[in-house]
Amino acid sequence: MSSAVVVEAPGTHRVVAHEPGEPGPGEALVRVHAVGICGSDREVYQGNRPEGYVRYPLTPGHEWSGTVAAVGTGVPDSLVGRKVVGEGFRNCQVCERCHAGETTLCTAGYEETGFTQPGAMAATLVLPARLLHVLPDAVDLTAAALLEPAACIAAAALKARARPGERVAVVGTGTLGMFAVQFLAAHSPAELLVVGSRDERTSLSRQFGATDFRLHSDPLPDDFDVVIEAAGGAGAARTAASLLRRGGRLVLTGLPAAGAEGLDPTDLVLRQLEVQTVFGAAPEAWAYAVRAFGAGVLDPAALVTHELALGRFAEAIELVGAGDPKVGKVLLRP
Predict the structure, then answer these.
(1) What is the C-alpha to C-alpha distance for residues 245 and 192, in angstroms, rounded to an integer?
(2) Could you tell me where the DSSP H helices lie in 161-201?
C-alpha cells in the first residue's frame, strides 16, 4: 500500500495510507522516486521553522525527483512518463516581482511545497505543471533528487558572476557547499579554495575541483575575487567576507540562528564589497542546474550516503541532525 509522512505538529508524525490525487487544470501528478532531507525539514519536525514558513499538519519534502504519471486539462500529454524535478515556490505569476522573473520574491506571500503545501514524502505529489523541469531520459533519478539544493546554489553562482581565471572560494562543506565547488569549478578559476570546519571533506572537495582546502582555524588569505558562503554558521558570513579582496563579490546562502555575527558595514563600505543573498531558486537558476546536471557538470550522487524507506522518516531526521561526518545526503524512497 502507498504511504505518506504527515507531521501533525512539532515532534509528532505518522506514516499514513496515501491515495494519489487527481491533477486539476494546469496540474501534474508525479510518482515520487526519491526525496531528500535537509536542515529545514528538521526545523519543520522540531518546530523551529520561522513563523509563516510552515503550516501543520504537513507532508514535508521539497527536494525530490519523479516521473509524471498523469496531467490535468491544459497540460501537454507529452509530459506523461517524463522524468522531472520541480520548483517549490508556489508563486502567483502575476505580481511585479514574478513578471520580473524573481519568483522567490512573489508579493502574494510565501507558499512552498513541503512547508505550506503538501510535499514529496509520499508516493505521489500533485503540483502546477508550470513548476516542472523535464530531465533527459537517461539521467539517474536518485541523483536528481538533489537538484533543489543545486538550484539554490545555481542562483548563487549566477549572482557571483565568476569569470575564468578569477580566484574563487567556498565557505561551507555541506551539500550546498559541495555544489558551490562544482559550479565554480565549471568557470575555470585560477584558484578554488574551500573553507570548512572539519577536514573530512578535503578529498571530495578536491574531487569536485578545489585546489586548496583549509579549516576556519587556519590562516586564511584575503585576496579572493568571489566567495560563496554556504555554511550558515554563526561566523560564516564574516569569514567569507574576510577572504575577499577590495571590491570582491560575496554571495550569502546560509541561514544562521538568531544572534549570529553580522557583517561590519564599515568594512563593507571601505572595501567596497558587493554582497548578494539567495533564498530559494527562481526559474532561471533551476534551468541552469538542470542543464548542468544533464551535461554531467554536477555529480549529486557522490553526496548521497544513506537511502531509507519512507517509513523510516524519524530515523532519517535523526541521521541528518546527528553531526556525524560520515552522514552526507539522506534520501527517503517511497
Answers:
(1) 15
(2) 175-185
C-alpha 251/C-alpha 275 separation (Å) is 6
> Cα–Cα distance between 18 and 32 in angstroms, integer?
12
pLDDT tens profile 17-32: 999 999 999 999 999 9
Q: Compute the C-alpha angle 89/314/319, nearest 5°.
A: 85
8 A C-beta contact, residue 307 and residue 331: yes
The owner of cell 486539476 is 24
What are the pLDDT digits (tens) for 229-262?
999 889 999 999 999 999 999 999 998 888 888 8
DSSP character for 62?
A: -
CA 279 distance to own-chain centroid: 9
DSSP string, 130-153: GGEEEPPTTS-HHHHTTHHHHHHH
Cα–Cα distance between 123 and 145 in angstroms, integer? 14
Q: Which three cell numbers stand for residue 160?
A: 557571483
Phi, psi of 86 (to 5 degrees): -150, 145
Largest Cα–Cα distance in the chain? 62
| Domain edges within the chain | 3-145+299-333, 151-277
Amino acid (one-letter) located at 151: A
User: Which residues are CB-contacts of 268 (< 8 A; sequence separation ≥ 6)?
Assistant: 241, 275
The topology under which CATH files domain 3-145+299-333 is Quinone Oxidoreductase; Chain A, domain 1 (3.90.180)
Q: Look at the domain 151-277 and name its fold.
A: Rossmann fold (3.40.50)
Decide: 67 and 33 in contact? Cβ < 8 Å: yes
Q: Among residues 127, 130, 124, which one has the least CA distance to residue 116?
A: 127
3-state secondary structure of 304: strand
